[in-house]
Amino acid sequence: MTTHHETYTAPPFGPALMLNAFAPSRGWNPKDGFPDFSFIWRGYQISPAALATLQRAAGRDDAATADRLILLAPHVTGFRLTMALLMCRDWPLPIWRALQLRNRLIRSGDIKLDAASDLIVRAIGWRVHDKGIELDVLAQLMQGGDCPWQSITTFYYRGRFDGPASHGADDGAPMASPPIDPSLPPMTQWTVDGGERLRWAALTGDYNPLHLVDIYARATGFAAASAHPQRIAAQCLGHLAPTPEHPTQLDLWLKGPVYFGRSASLREASNDDGTTFGLWIDGDDRPAMVGVMR
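^ Acyl dehydratase, sequence as received from the core. Prediction below:
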């Protein structure tokens, strides 16, 4: 199995990563699977400017919303390290074949915003299906000897792949999202703002033109450019009903594009296990995003 360990002492440079996306991929080898890579970002921090961007997206700056955004913030601002992993020249499959399916974000301690930290990402498991392969990427925030936050992001590569049916643990969000009744009255509705597109690209490291340029999105078969999923997650967290305790886990299922300029409707249902929510875009029968906050 190919190994590769890379250390950054500054944010991975987005344009350089995008150039890697055009390099030929070495191809899938069922004997090797996904390689044993670890990418480390030393000195990683969540900046006040990044938190301000999240709060603008959420539309609220109260303490409860800020607490929720702390759970989301490392996923947003550290996502470029995952992009660096998936766009590495030695990675077997090209980034343009990868579709982000779901996220599991876990907070297990206090996240110190003013402390220099290490962020580490690596592939931990995959599952071969009839029409594609799922890949789990683990991100861990290390502050001193503690790991107060981690995430598992599941990507899907379309195609047919040989090899064992599974490899590694399956610890991410479940494949099937929980149901939420579409007949529930919306908690709130808003129009998906199309501003700050480049800011969110810079924040996440995801410069996919599908999130930036309407003409390009339409030329590739979409109705318009669509928002980064992290941005939509922040908007949902800002509109959910208050909860008495700070959240420790957030599972997200990304089911479809959230187009700029469309009307969005948020529905939620709460019980002792947490809050389940779904975001519908005007004109679509199924939700574009489903989440569970515990």
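The longest strand covers residues 117-129.
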